[in-house]
Specification:
9 helices; alpha/beta; Rossmann fold; seven-stranded mixed β-sheet
């Protein structure tokens, strides 16, 4: 042995921010609508001391998986990107989310993992189904992961949103290979149809990310053309307003929300 010691891997800047500010920093991302979705999810995810099993399907860099683990769930995050998986595991460790774990899996092949079938009390799937051509298969596979009586919490773009920037208008093509949206979004009727076919009973359909969040996102995307940090810094003081005022102002103006949100329950063991 030559006595040399490998240098520790340097944290990327996002993980460094998480180390400084804790789990809340995982919600301050490029996508300014992430916090809206977490607020919607967290209201439907009571703290638990019984270690209920939760799967976060399409977890990205793991913010919601970490959040669920800190609320007492045995939380498994699934993402197709091995880099996201590593970053998520690193950030979970920094946040003290010891009951969070992560695995790399393309959600299109969720049914290839029999060990996940009938395992979870809760399944999260946020802003993922719009990327998947065979959406009925995905909903059916999500239902198969649930125990009888288990809950699915799903968010996806609302079909009738107003585009924040031109990219939100597509194009949308089922044969896309770049990982972007294959459809504009969903209506309540379509989500109910998909759920019924998958053996799920719909408890509620609601919405999140109203006009304030959308306009702040517009500012971010516009100023990011100068430099990403310019956009991020500019909107930082504005981010306190949507949780306080977004729903009231959006409803008053009758502005369409950006995301539609589904709460459904598995009704039998046969799904």
């Amino acid at each position: 042995m030559n006595g040399s010691v490998a240098a520790p891997r340097q944290l990327d800047w996002r993980s460094a921010v998480v180390k400084l500010f804790g789990s809340r920093a995982t919600l301050i991302t490029w996508d300014t609508l992430v916090l809206d979705r977490w607020l919607w999810v967290s209201k439907r995810l009571p703290r638990t001391g019984s270690g209920q099993a939760l799967a976060d399907v399409g977890c990205g860099s793991g913010a919601f998986t970490i959040g669920a683990a800190l609320r007492g769930y045995q939380a498994l995050g699934l993402t197709f990107d091995a880099r996201d998986q590593r970053a998520a595991a690193e950030r979970a460790a920094l946040c003290g989310a010891g009951s969070a774990s992560f695995d790399a899996l393309d959600v299109r092949y969720l049914d290839s993992r029999p060990d996940l079938k009938g395992r979870f009390e809760v399944v999260l799937c946020t802003e993922t189904i719009e990327h998947i051509a065979d959406d009925q298969k995905l909903i059916t596979d999500l239902a198969a992961c649930l125990k009888p009586g288990g809950r699915l919490l799903l968010t996806t773009p609302y079909e009738h949103y107003r585009a924040i920037t031109p990219s939100d208008n597509g194009p949308f093509m089922l044969d896309r290979t770049d990982g972007w949206h294959v459809r504009r979004g969903y209506t309540e009727a379509r989500l109910r149809e998909l759920s019924q076919t998958a053996g799920l009973s719909v408890d509620a359909v609601s919405y999140c990310s109203g006009i304030l969040s959308q306009k702040i996102t517009f500012i971010l995307r516009t100023l990011a053309r100068i430099h990403p940090l310019v956009g991020r810094i500019a909107i930082l003081p504005l981010r306190v307003f949507p949780p306080l005022f977004d729903r009231g102002i959006t409803n008053w103006l009758r502005w369409p929300y950006y995301s539609i949100c589904l709460e459904a329950r598995k009704v039998s063991a046969d799904t």
